[in-house]
Design goal:
globular; DUF2200 domain-containing protein; about 55% helix; UCP033199; SP1917_dom_sf; 2 strands; mainly alpha
Length: about 120
């Protein structure tokens, strides 16, 4: 897996794609933000700061207050890879986020997406 290119990819450049994917399926930016905050521990304000300062994914996850304790419940295949088998810690976190956004776009309830 080519995770090194993800390290330096700017989170703010991918974020609009997460929102667009959700909105195409009649979901909202607020739901995308809720998912990101649930996963990373960011508040809405600190998430917006990360977007505004255009940090890369590595910095975004390094500065995240705390990965959610239920992150291990995020399983399955995303982008052709089984999340449970991804060894690179950063790539795994990015794929967790991708999986949650995919579940949102597929119509899952927020309760199921947030593993509550």
């Amino acid at each position: 897996m080519a995770s090194r290119s993800i390290n330096h990819m700017i989170f703010a450049s991918v974020y609009p794609h997460y929102v667009a994917k959700a909105e195409k399926k009649n979901r909202t930016k607020a739901e995308v933000d809720e998912i990101i905050c649930w996963l990373t521990g960011y508040t809405q304000e600190s998430l917006q700061k990360q977007i505004n300062t255009k940090v890369d994914f590595e910095t975004f996850f390094d500065q995240a207050p705390q990965l959610n304790e239920n992150v291990s419940k995020i399983t399955g295949v995303i982008c052709g890879y089984r999340i449970e088998e991804i060894e690179d810690p950063l790539l795994k976190k990015v794929r967790y986020l991708d999986k949650l956004i995919e579940e949102l776009a597929k119509g899952k309830t927020m309760q199921k997406i947030l593993r509550s």
